[in-house]
Amino acid sequence: MTKRRSKKIILGGAQITYHHPKPELLWGYVQEGYRSIAEPEKAIIDLLYLERPGLKKLLIDEIRWQEIDLQRLRQYAKKTGIRSLIKRVEVISSSRASSSPPPITTSAPSPSMIIQS
Question: pTM for this one?
């Protein structure tokens, strides 16, 4: 996510895409030096937001759910005001709350996103 225009760059042979969301969705980040890092719950919201137009795919089973505050995730979804995203988070958080936590794996990254200032 970026405050600047969306763009794609190639870095070390890998394609990196910067997405520019609506300005009112640029919250839920903590400042680390010159960059802003999304809180885990906000990273999920951002991925769901990007998934809507088919830009990214959220791999639900690869998220470390034991590190996610489901109440905060629901609050963040409501804060976006996007009905389809709110419904999706309700379904996801309800299924996570009613099931046992998924096993801890070392291969799945913790959800976080970097926003370029």
Answer: 0.68
